[in-house]
Amino acid sequence: MVERQTFVSRYLPHAVLLAGVAIVAFPVYLALLASTYDAASVQNGQMSLLPGGRMAENYTRLIFTGTSSSTREPVGTMLINSFVMAMAISLGKIAISLISAYAIVFFRFPFRMAAFWLIFITLMLPVEVRIYPTYKIVADLRLLDTYTGLTLPLIASATATLLFRQFFMTVPEELVEASKIDGAGPFKFFVDTLLPLSVTTIAALFVIQFIYGWNQYLWPLLITTRDNMQTIVIGIKKMIVTQDALTEWQLAMATAVLALLPPVFVVVVMQKLFVKGLVETEK
Fold first, then answer.
1. Helices 158-168 and 75-106 meet at what angle, rounded to 10?
2. What is the third-level CATH fold of 77-282?
């Protein structure tokens, strides 16, 4: 029996979807518009819904020169700092979580489950809770204003370890036995068997952890004192000064637009890999 579709049932879902996209995308569009005007036009509300003529000037000044009032470093430097921090955090979390979950699931050693529960309990201790002792250790090790200090305290992840453990527990025991019969050692089994099977989980976690590292604000604010170590999120906050009239809103909006690009790029690229991994897994 073929169900007949009415006009409402056919087009109403699309209309609702388009309305939702418009609501979400319109503020981003306004930020993009504001970045193409001068300061007076933005502050006086004289912008139209069409781009202005200051786009090249504003973005060139931001990326290569910076602003004179709040941030003395170019936004290009901030983007590099944020990218290094996000990549190190995401790759470090995935690597450590993969190894720890592999050890917990496939190796038998004393206090194995106790180690797992100790890792799991750290979910109740986010960075904000242990911020002072973490800062004290980083300061004592003289890691302030360094990439190591930005990334190392944020690398451990109980959530990723839990996800990889749950996935590894679904791997058939016959696959492990077959690898042993083929003469594969623990390292070869990990590299040749488990890693290819974990592509979808790795892709999803990479997207989540990259955005997590990119949006960090409190930790970089505490341990960075030099302008050349600031991240893009801190740069946006410093551009918005207390006196509203002194804020260069066109530059702040341009910085916000630039800050959006790397996470969006990562989501688009990793989404393709995620879908590809799902299809290959079904096959």
1. 40
2. MetI-like fold (1.10.3720)
Residue 281 pLDDT greater than 80, yes or no: no
**Other residues' Cβ atoms within 10 Å of the Cβ of residue 270:** 19
Q: Rounded mean pLDDT of 180-200? A: 84
Beta strands, E only, 108-187: none
Greatest distance between any 2 Cα atoms in the chain: 75
- CA-CA distance, 214 to 233, in Å (whole number)? 8
Q: For 170-175, which contacts have Cβ atoms below 8 Å and span 24 or more sequence positions?
A: 171/197
d(CA 263, CA 212): 10
CA distance 41 to 43: 6
Per the structure block, which two tokens stand in for 170? 């679904």
For residue range 103-112, list pLDDT tens digits in order. 888 888 888 8
Residue among 61, 60, 57, 86 nearest 72 (CA): 61
In angstroms, rounded to a whole number, what is the distance separating the alpha carbons of residues 254 and 36? 8
Q: Are 64 and 75 in contact (CB under 8 A)?
A: no
